[in-house]
Amino acid sequence: MIVPSIDIMNGRAVQLRGGKQPPLDAGNPLELAERYSRVGEFAVVDLDAAMGKGSNRELVLSMCKRWPVRVGGGIRTQKLALEYLNAGARYIMLGTAATPEFCAQLPHERLIAALDSRNDTIMVEGWTKPREGSVEEAIQKLAPYVAGFLVTFIETEGDQCGIDIERAKRLVKLAPDRKFTFAGGAAGGERGLADIAALDAIGADIQAGTSLVLGDLSLADAFAAPLHTDRPDGLWPTLVCDESGKVLGLVYSNRESLKHAIESGKGAYHSRSRGLWVKGESSGNGQTLIRADLDCDRDTIRFTVRQEGVGFCHLKRRNCFDDGYGLEKLNRTISKRMKDAPQGSYTRRLFSDEALLASKLREEAQELAQSKTKDEAVAEAADVMYFALVKTISMGGSLSDIEAELEHRSLRVTRRGGNAKPEFEGSEGKNEWKSIH
């Protein structure tokens, strides 16, 4: 797969060639991140920190909180490593600090050892100093402590000459149960697409920056490079899901529609009767493309979208099978009632009377805490979820925001103790709730 790369210097995205002065200003890193996130994880490298010439820490942290990023560049302390991981970085890429001793202090499943090689010599501290040992030796030494490796061939960085596939295969064989990503010389055009497909076939990725920024490698074509199909019409089945992963429908994509979707950030597909079909152009039920993924067999695409309007189906339903289910359906129902509930109705009272809503939240949480059977717990939990959604929606949030927060918390490495606040310890009766609040 393609892993787009954003190298940051003085707050700007840049591209280096051969590890020398940046020849290319690639623009606003946040704008690049918005686009790159549509094809999954992307890499962010703080070049200033790597070279000891400053830091773009705040900018990188903000990117960790918004997108699925791999972060590297100048991460040489456990404190900074944990800060990026706790902020939501999927992985941190360690170069200078990639030693067994340092890695052993961190969760190995979130670590990538960045091995930057110039003519078979490992370079550290922003490619400014050599380190003893070969790439091969480093892989064997670090494999027990990391989830994967990023191998960069510095001498070809930015030259777009292509990846040495045979050498990549030899390196992968040294640690076949680790994920490999290769960078340095990612080519544009057909050569670049062939390299992506060849590496994907052995379970490895390509990290690319220059070829994407220059437009020599299309982001959509790079994403699609590993895809294949046995359909006579060459179309790729595309499963459309909402932010929670629930299926909205099955459609088809081709190269044209995929490129339109990834470049525009909209749900765009191939209609066998109309050609390019941008969802919502006629119905008003548009889609924002959050992310595209390939399945394990590389013959199906999944679009994760934010669905607008009444739903995905032409029958004005949430999806092509029914009108939704569970919390997602409740979220839509409450949102609709907030807008059109008649004056005097209970729903309107909940939205307009903060004290009433707060009381109901405390009441239902207390009843859930006091439940003694499964049925009681289920019923009371349903009440709590209902009133929690009312509160969240009244404040401008949604179920998807709650789910995103839970996902973000799952990435934290350091956690609080989780003890109850003193005023809640041992509280079992409603009278105690009242005395507190």
What structural category arises from helix and sheet content?
alpha/beta
Percent of residues in helices:
25-40%
The overall average pLDDT, rounded, is: 91
The CATH class assignment of the largest domain is: Alpha Beta
**Unreliable segments of 5+ consecutive residues:** 429-437
Q: Can you tell me the CATH superfamily of the largest domain? A: Aldolase class I
Measured between the Cα atoms of the first and last residue, the distance is: 54 Å
Beta-strand percent range = 15-25%
Q: How are strands sequenced across the largest beta sheet?
A: 1-4-5-6-7-10-11-12
- Name the shape in a single word: globular
Task: Provide the number of structural domains.
Answer: 3
Number of helices: 17
Q: What do we call the CATH topology of the largest domain?
A: TIM Barrel
Number of strands: 18
Largest sheet data: 8 strands, parallel, barrel
Give a structural overview.
This protein is an alpha/beta fold and 437 residues long. The chain has three domains: 2-224, Aldolase class I (TIM Barrel); 236-307, Ubiquitin-like (UB roll), CATH 3.10.20.810; 326-436, MazG-like (Helix Hairpins, Orthogonal Bundle). Helices cover 38% and strands 22% of the residues. It has helices spanning 29-36, 47-50, 57-66, 78-87, 100-103, 135-142, 165-174, 189-201, 210-213, 219-224, 255-264, 326-340, 346-352, 354-370, 374-394, 399-410, 430-436; strands spanning 2-9, 12-15, 24-27, 42-46, 69-72, 91-94, 111-118, 121-124, 129-131, 148-153, 179-183, 204-208, 236-241, 247-253, 268-271, 275-278, 287-294, 301-307. It has an eight-stranded parallel β-barrel, surrounded by five helices. A four-stranded mixed β-sheet has the order 14-13-18-17, with helices on one face. It has a two-stranded antiparallel sheet with strand order 15-16. Helix 3 packs parallel to helix 4 and helix 14 (354-370) packs antiparallel against helix 15 (374-394). The longest helix has 21 residues, at 374-394. The termini are far apart.
